[in-house]
Amino acid sequence: MMDTEFTGQRRSEGAMLSCPAAINTLHTGVISCLLDERLTFLWGNTGFFNGIHFSMEEYCGLYQDLEQYYDGHSEDFQQIRQAFSQSVEEEVFQIDLTVRLPINGGGFFWARLLGSVMEERVAGCRVVRCEFTDVDAMMAETEEFRRLYRQKQQYFNWMLDTYIGNVYISDMDTYELLYLNRNFCETMGKPAGQMLGSKCYEVIQGRNTPCPFCTNDKLHEDKDYDWEFDNPVLQKTFMIKNRMIEWSGHRARIELSHDAQSTEFKLAKKDQEKNAIIRAVPGGFARVDARDMSTILWYGGGFLDMIGYTKEEFANELHSQCTYLHPDDIERTVKIMESSRITGKKTVVEGRIITRDGTIKILTMTYTYVSAKDSWDGIASFYSAGIDVTREREEQARQRQALEDAYQSARIANEAKTNFLSSMSHDIRTPMNAIMGMSVIAKANLGNPEKLADCLGKIGTSSRHLLGLINEVLDMSRIESGKIDLSSEVVSLPDLVEDVIGICRPLSNQKRQQLFISADCVRHEKVVTDSGRLQQVLMNLLSNAVKYTPDEGTIRLRLKELPSIVPGRGQYEFVVTDNGIGMTEDYVQHIFEPFTRAEDSRVSKIQGTGLGMTITENIVRMMNGTIEVKSRLGQGSTFIFAVSFEVCEEEALCKNELAGLPVLVVDDDPVVCESAVELLKDLGMRGDWVLSGKEAVVRIAEARDSGEDYYFVVLDWQMPDMDGLDTVRAIRKKLGSDVPIIIISAYDYSDIEEEFLRAGADAFIAKPLFRSRMACAFHKFCRRDKGETAGLIQDGYSALAGRRLLLVEDNELNREIASELLQMQGLLVETAEDGRQAVERFRASGLREYSCILMDVQMPVMDGYQATEVIRALSREDAREIPIIALTANAFAADLGKAHSAGMNDHVSKPIDMEHLVGVLHKWLA
Length: 926
Hints:
Elements (H helix, E strand, L loop, with lengths): L3 H10 L7 H4 L4 E6 L6 E4 L1 H6 L4 H7 L3 H4 L4 H16 L4 E9 L5 E15 L2 E10 L1 H27 L3 E6 L5 E4 L1 H7 L3 H4 L4 H6 L19 E7 L4 E12 L2 E10 L3 H18 L2 E7 L6 E6 L1 H5 L3 H6 L13 H14 L3 E8 L5 E11 L10 E8 L1 H55 L4 H33 L7 E4 H18 L3 E7 L5 E4 L1 H17 L6 E9 L6 E10 L6 H4 L12 H4 L7 H11 L3 E7 L3 E12 L14 E5 L3 H13 L3 E5 L2 H13 L6 E5 L7 H12 L5 E5 L7 H7 L3 E4 L4 H13 L2 H4 L14 E5 L3 H12 L4 E5 L2 H10 L7 E5 L7 H9 L11 E5 L4 H10 L3 E4 L4 H12 L1
Parallel strand pairs: 17-19, 23-24, 23-25, 25-26, 26-27, 28-29, 28-30, 30-31, 31-32
Antiparallel strand pairs: 1-2, 1-5, 3-4, 4-5, 6-7, 6-10, 8-9, 9-10, 11-12, 11-15, 13-14, 14-15, 16-18, 18-22, 19-20, 20-22, 21-22
Helix pairs in contact: 15-16, 16-21, 17-18, 18-21, 23-24, 29-30
């Protein structure tokens, strides 16, 4: 304990230690005291003083210890003091109490006190720390629960007192009687005061020891135990119901019993049975006065709940009349009741009622007539039972409507598919006729190379068109059956856009259309998605734009990266715009429905399945993207495809050698100029732009005169007035060859490349402009002499020449065609007819003799998957290294997964696109 010298000094000086800063910020109240007799106060935090409505100065001026503070609630102080003393004796050093905290101005609130005896000492005395949490609301709620419990206990006692049978409650462990109702006392012939506290077996059975037939071990809290007992003391047989309950802190047994021979018991039993039957029926009962067919003489069961009235509302508002019946059904109901009166048989009618809140319900109502002679009170009446069948009838109506809708949908779908098959028959026969006809013509002109080449070209075009039709039908079948899958792979958006444009540009060139491509603010060029499906969406949108835009029309593809609020993901928008024939507002609503095409004479001659937009919309939906269509008839269409991709962390572009370099962008499209300048800023460069070649020459000259030459000039090929070629010549004539000029073009520049290089151009970049491609071109100029950068075109040397492949294909014609095409690439090709033969050829070959295996999947004897697994399991070193590429007509994502699971490296679908196959071979062999 604290020495008296320190205590006296502190009390006289009123000194108080300061509260630690960290504790002072807590919202709960915290104090520290000496563990002495009066719990001398050391310090308190702001939360404590605020909670009791004292300032620190006021509190310390009034109280030097907790005993003074608790002057009006000494029992709380003694509780705290005793708890701390006991914790020290038991070496627990923690207390947890609920105490009152007095408030400035009178009153208190309940708080939970968590106390700790600290290791520190002040003047040799141990210190305690107390944290107070306001639990006033919790205590009030607890007190309310106690009040409600007492109230329910009173109700329960009242019910037991008025119960028609005998009730007693006894302690299951001591057998003492805890409660007796009045009927029990009358049955036993003694007042309750003489029996309470006695043993139940002494009072009821006249025994000195517990009954051997006691049922305590059979009792549960959640169910009754019913039994019958012949009491020899009372000479009566009782029907007994027992259950285990909690009674004022006792584990108790409650027993309800009836003398089985009493009239009261029999009447009560009959009432219970009648009420049980009534409650078992899911509806309500009513007795209707037959004299006026309207007055309700009696009702029961769920009658009031069914019609939505209380007892008072039914009496005061409806005056006990059945006016709750729907007005349109009253006459029919009366006729049904009359029929029951005449025939004497039960009748059934289904009608409507209107509840008090206006809800209309459908009831099945039965009526049974009882004459005045047979009635207990001499009043003829109809006894009616009503059952609410509203939900059943609504569900039946819903099902009928659903069946009708399904029938209509099936009928419309069948009509659409019939029309589709009719259209497909024509669309498929057209390229088939071309292929067959051109084959005949080619055979007849084997000696005419020009004619033969023309036939073969048309056969190739028709074959690709036929393959496209078949692929659309198969894709739609997969989508409808739910078997389409999306794969995840790293995709380069610049490469993907380049591939799409490379396919679409020849189509647009045939119609002399202008195809513009732009990329806006694309900062993440590599994303994770299904490359094939994304390309399919863009191809469908662009090929449709080409098909439905007249000759010399304009088509635009714009790619934009939007700000994304989700870390690690990018929001992208692809916009395809054309000035073609457009669509009506009505047809725009149906454009994504399968087998639909606009009714337009300009469209009917264009071949197609009517599935392209349906497939596109389904792929977009599977990517969790959105697609929007805007179109006006005769003015063109705009498709906006928005989707979120996971972005890849790309290698940081080296900006040091480009930092601060000035660049002039020359293009007649302001959007392209602004986007290019943004990309230059991302690279750390300074960008200016002009909209014509004349402005470019003037701007470059001004920069030369001011001593701030441009380091690069990025120049569009096609511009009005002065095109790119004239601008290059003008720049070189006026300023010489010091400034590197990079030509950008949305077209194939192979035809004009040589002419531009002679005029003084240094390099070429294809649109759309991506940051990585611009950086690559600039870096090459920074790292090489200008003479080395003049030819940025790679030579055509093939890395495949001389490599030996094993081609596994069971179809002889396919094997011959594939071999010939591969040999045209300089490859050495050996063949096998099935999987087993492929395994034997590989096992007999020298180490790394084969550079690659092209493996068909579906083959006799041993299929491609099995053959791959056998090869991978061989003990030779190159068995696990050699690239095995699947060749299959099953061109879906699930098949790709199966091929990889078998040990294959890649997957090429049939019919084989030779350009794609060569690309895959370069990927694995180069």
